């Protein structure tokens, strides 16, 4: 198996390095009954992370193809596919009561951050390398102190971490649970960025009832022992 270049990796190499932390495009599409168009698949041909980066993050991150499904649609898709998703989880040995669901408090469904991509922009289909848990040492800190841990001035540069959008984190939690039977962010919350207002005032996580996704508002100064910074690795430049 050959590496495509020093800044990108083939799917075979990524799978060999990451194992179950590599979600294939077909697996992600299955979650939403999405028949992949040729153009969509073509946009995922290049994995913009080196083998060295994947190796260093193999146990801490999930490589996932982002199909740009909005939070609002994720909620509806999960509710609408109850029986199908129930069978999927039962096939994986999970009880029906552990079925993925969203908390009943849907205060966010009509807010701009729950709708992505925005009406004026095309979908952004990209590989994402999302951390499986909040950044170490970021718990019980306000936003400013959390940003210092990733170096706010360089968070958009290759090889560094950035804050994830709430949509990215919710999407990752949904896909990993449906394809791997594993609940990320269980009983903890990750501070996310609201890409519409560029304010870090939204958190996402799973409650103690396995599979229930909870989305809350959070102020910049808020701190909690179970609230950490949700991050992703910035990809290599082409």
Number of helices: 8
Helix content: 25-40%
Main sheet specs: 5 strands, mixed
In terms of DSSP E residues, the strand content is 15-25%
Oligomeric state: single chain
Major beta sheet, strand line-up? 2-7-6-5-8
Indicate the structural class.
alpha+beta
Q: What is the average of the pLDDT values?
A: 81
The strand count comes to: 9
**Terminal residue distance:** 21 Å
SSE string, helices as H and strands as E = HHHHEHHEEHEHEEEEE
Shape: globular
Low confidence ranges: 1-5
Query: What Rg do the Cα atoms give?
Result: 17 Å
> How many structural units, i.e. domains?
1
How does this structure look, described?
Mean pLDDT is 81; it is low at 1-5. A 5-stranded mixed β-sheet has the order 2-7-6-5-8, with helices on both faces. A 4-stranded antiparallel β-sheet has the order 1-3-9-4, covered by helices on one side. By secondary structure, the protein is of the alpha+beta class. The two termini are 21 Å apart. The protein has one domain. A hairpin with a 5-residue loop joins strand 6 (199-206) and strand 7. The chain contains 8 helices and 9 strands. It is globular, with a radius of gyration of 17 Å.
């Amino acid at each position: 198996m050959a590496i495509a270049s020093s800044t990108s990796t083939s799917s075979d190499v990524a799978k060999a390095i990451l194992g179950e932390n590599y979600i294939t495009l077909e697996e992600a599409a299955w979650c939403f009954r999405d028949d992949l168009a040729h153009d969509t698949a073509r946009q995922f041909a290049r994995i913009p992370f080196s083998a060295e980066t994947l190796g260093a993050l193999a146990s801490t991150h999930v490589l996932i193809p982002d199909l740009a499904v909005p939070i609002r649609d994720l909620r509806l898709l999960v509710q609408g596919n109850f029986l199908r998703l129930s069978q999927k989880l039962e096939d994986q040995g999970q009880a029906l009561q552990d079925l993925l669901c969203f908390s009943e408090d849907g205060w966010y469904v009509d807010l701009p951050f729950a709708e992505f991509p925005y009406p004026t922009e095309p979908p952004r289909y990209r590989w994402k390398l999302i951390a499986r848990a909040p950044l170490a040492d970021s718990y019980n800190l306000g936003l400013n102190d959390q940003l210092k841990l990733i170096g706010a001035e360089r968070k958009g540069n290759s090889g560094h971490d950035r804050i994830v959008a709430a949509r990215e984190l919710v999407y990752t939690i949904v896909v990993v649970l449906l394809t791997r039977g594993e609940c990320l962010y269980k009983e903890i919350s990750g501070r996310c960025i609201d890409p519409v207002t560029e304010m870090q005032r939204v958190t996402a996580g799973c409650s103690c009832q396995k599979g229930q996704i909870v989305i809350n508002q959070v102020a910049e100064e808020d701190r909690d022992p179970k609230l950490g910074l949700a991050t992703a690795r910035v990809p290599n430049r082409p």
